[in-house]
């Protein structure tokens, strides 16, 4: 459900970027002694050098808000770090979980480290720790990767297109199906999903601090890092390699979101490149197009005003610049949104293993609650999860979000091709794009049937179909719509 947080661990122990005078020591409490026994004979340094260690790091995302969250009474949370080891089968095995609280909390330790269980008691503690990580992950998935990165941050590009580009402008015509329904959906989200007291605040751990977390994450948002190859490089999940089709090589080849996504990214890039070069032959034509330049300036200066002075914005001077900007936009609204939205019910609906919030902190030795935990660990675990009402309401919401509507338009579908009836090169490009997406679908089917790819096949492992371009209506766990829509 959330393929966008995992990063390659490059520094051990992990370090916080928060102010140590406020939030305490920068270094994680996870030590080499915690994980060495699960590295299959490697030292930590060797595992780092061989790209075998990965991390889900939610420490800095949650820690500034934990005092407020934990004072609400109906939910409890930690700031978590989880380290994974890449096995020879290219599966990720968790080897340590760190649960952190603000240091001013006197009733619970500021940092606890849990490792894979050795006995019955540590097994239940490990399950509880994993549940807290899942709660962290669910919040970041919904508030940062889903709402912020695919819904909110794309909105200014759509508004500016309607304000600055004529409906006859070639770039407006290209983007038109990729802007379908998004403003309407975002408006509805502000009324019932992300509003104060709304669905997100009711069923996710951050509660009334949800938009604070989303806003804090926006400070680190960068449009130039939103394209798939750039995002994978930033997270250390790939390295530059000019011999590969997209110029990168995956560190984990069996990373379904990335490996399938690169096929779609490449197809979009080829289509957009052909389209842009048909209308713009030179730098001067890009620079002199006042509608195009005004659109991009408004996206930056008004739409993303908090970042308008950032040096990382891509320039818009050449056809290659425009190709990258448009490819990134189309990628975000189609494949990236599909990957984080339409699998929510499949991967997240079974609340006991994917809780969106927790109601208890970990039991602490020598406390009465710990004695009760030892007597009936299953009861303690279930009482830590969302209530039955919270769980069923949450399940109903994500089932709606995971549903394709009857009239959905999917990537590769162009219902207004007649507007290019006098431009056979453009018609051919769209036709080739549609054919390429069908080929990609066959390739994904082939990968899902490959028993050596254990992250998408095997007993109990659902095939990864979220980036299969086509879908039937309903909850299908596949399909890439043209736009951010449900």
Explain how this protein is built.
It is a single chain. Helix content is 47%, strand content 7%. The chain has 486 residues and is α+β, with helices and mostly antiparallel strands. The strands form two sheets. Strands 1-2-3-4-5 form a five-stranded antiparallel beta sheet. It has a two-stranded antiparallel sheet with strand order 6-7. The chain is globular.
Descriptors for this entry?
single chain, 486 residues, alpha+beta, five-stranded antiparallel beta sheet, two-stranded antiparallel ribbon, 21 helices
Roughly what fraction of the amino acids lie in strands?
Answer: 5-15%
Order of the strands making up the biggest sheet: 1-2-3-4-5
Sheet/helix structural class: alpha+beta
Helix count from the secondary structure assignment = 21
Shape field = globular
Topology, number of strands: 7
What is the helix fraction of residues, given as a range?
A: 40-55%
Quick one: biggest sheet?
5 strands, antiparallel
Mean pLDDT: 96
Order of helices and strands: EHHHEHHEEEHHHHHHHEEHHHHHHHHH
Given as residue ranges, the uncertain stretches (5+ residues, pLDDT < 50) are: none
* CA gyration radius, whole angstroms: 23 Å
- Calculate the terminal CA-CA distance, rounded to whole Å: 16 Å
């Amino acid at each position: 459900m959330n393929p966008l947080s995992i990063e390659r661990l490059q520094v051990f122990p992990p370090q916080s970027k928060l102010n140590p005078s406020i939030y305490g020591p920068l270094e994680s409490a996870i030590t080499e002694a915690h994980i060495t026994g699960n590295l299959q004979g490697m030292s930590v340094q060797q595992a780092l050098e061989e790209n075998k260690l990965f991390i889900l790091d939610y420490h800095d995302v949650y820690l500034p808000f934990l005092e407020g969250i934990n004072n609400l009474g109906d939910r409890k949370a930690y700031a978590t770090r989880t380290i994974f080891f890449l096995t020879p089968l290219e599966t990720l095995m968790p080897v340590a979980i760190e649960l952190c609280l603000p240091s001013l909390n006197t009733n619970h330790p500021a940092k606890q480290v849990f490792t894979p269980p050795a006995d019955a008691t540590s097994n239940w503690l490990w399950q509880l720790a994993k549940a807290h990580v899942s709660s962290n992950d669910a919040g970041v998935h919904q508030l940062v990767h889903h709402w912020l990165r695919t819904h909110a941050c794309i909105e200014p590009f759509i508004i500016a297109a309607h304000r600055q580009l004529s409906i006859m402008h070639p770039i407006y015509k290209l983007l038109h199906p990729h802007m379908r329904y998004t403003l309407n959906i975002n408006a509805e989200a502000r009324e019932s999903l992300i509003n104060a007291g709304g669905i997100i605040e009711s069923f996710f751990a951050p509660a009334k601090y949800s938009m604070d977390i989303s806003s804090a994450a926006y400070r680190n948002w960068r449009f130039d890092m939103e394209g798939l190859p750039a995002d994978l490089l930033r997270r250390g999940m790939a390295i530059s390699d000019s011999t590969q089709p997209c110029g990168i090589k995956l560190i984990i080849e069996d990373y379904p979101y990335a490996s399938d996504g690169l096929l779609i990214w490449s197809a979009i890039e080829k289509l957009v490149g052909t389209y842009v070069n048909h209308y713009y032959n030179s730098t001067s034509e890009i620079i002199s197009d006042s509608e195009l330049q005004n659109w991009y300036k408004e996206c930056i200066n008004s739409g993303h005003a908090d970042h308008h002075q950032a040096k990382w914005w891509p320039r818009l001077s050449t056809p290659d610049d425009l190709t990258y900007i448009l490819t990134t936009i189309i990628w975000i609204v189609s494949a990236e949104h599909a990957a984080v939205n339409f699998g929510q019910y499949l991967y997240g609906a079974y609340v006991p293993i994917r809780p969106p919030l927790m109601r208890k902190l970990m039991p602490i030795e020598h406390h009465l609650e710990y004695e009760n935990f030892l007597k009936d660990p299953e009861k303690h675990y279930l009482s830590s999860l969302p209530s039955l009402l919270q769980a069923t309401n949450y399940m109903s919401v994500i089932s709606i979000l995971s549903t394709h509507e009857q009239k959905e338009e999917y990537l590769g579908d162009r219902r207004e091709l007649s507007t290019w009836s006098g431009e056979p090169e453009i018609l051919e490009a769209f036709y080739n794009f549609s054919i390429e997406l069908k080929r990609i679908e066959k390739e994904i089917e082939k990968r899902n049937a490959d028993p050596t790819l254990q992250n998408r096949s095997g007993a109990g492992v659902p095939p990864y179909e979220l980036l299969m371009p086509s879908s039937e209506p309903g909850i299908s766990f596949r399909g890439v719509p043209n736009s951010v829509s449900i």
